[in-house]
Structure formats: C-alpha cells, structure tokens
Amino acid sequence: MKRLNPEKLHVQYLPNITPTKPTIPRKYTLTHSDITAELFLTIGQRYAYEKINPMRDEVLGEWIKINNKYFFNVYLHVGGKLGTVNTAIRNRIFRRELPLALESIRYGDRKLFETHPELDKAPIIVYFNSTIPYFNRVEIWGTFSDYR
Prior knowledge:
alpha/beta; seven-stranded mixed β-sheet
C-alpha cells in the first residue's frame, strides 16, 4: 500500500460543514491528479459532482447511521460499458488504491475523528458498482482505525 503524503492532500469544506460537524449529512468526494499525484478531498453535505472527471475514477463516501450505529459507505464506479477487460483493470486499480483513499479521508477529516472517536470503529462498506455482475460487489473493508 502506498502511504499518504499529507503535503499532496488538499482538503476543502463546502458550506455548512466544519471540521467537526455535522456528522450526518457528511459526504466525501476524493479525486486526484495523475500528473502531480495530488489528492483533492471535498467534504460537504453533497458530493462535489463538478469535480468528477469523465474517467470516473473518484471515490465517493458518506456517513450513515442505522439504529444508533455509524457506517461509512464508499461508492466506486468500476464500469462495464467498455467491456470486461477494461472493467477488470479499473477494478484492480480501485482495489490497489482504495487503502490510500481511505487513509486520505481519515487524515483529511481527522478533526472529526478526534471529536467523534467512535467513528474509527465504524464498518467501511464498499460498493463496487459495475454493469458486469462479477465486478458488481459489496464488501466490508475494515474500519478507519485500519487506515490511520
């Protein structure tokens, strides 16, 4: 797993979001630059769709609460319209880079985790979205305490 270089992570809070509240609704849009290797994390009450490029290689995440228990859902557009080979490549890249993405979200929003330490124990549920059934999966990827 690549380790996060904090100097390459840029965090932006959208209106009505602070480093410590609200927890819900709180959505994350993580994008990157292939040229500079910089990561761009936008935290808001909505996703920053305007920052998503046509390659659809962003990581989207959100906090949800069910029966007083927090969960962190991650949504990845693995694809499928370009065929099985391209979808398999995208799937492999997402799986390789997802630990870095989760570490970036955890670090970028660290004040929220300091204020609400129970969030470090929340299950991370990843939705690999694809039109090809083999790649269309839901998996548990541990907790944020695994990505500190």
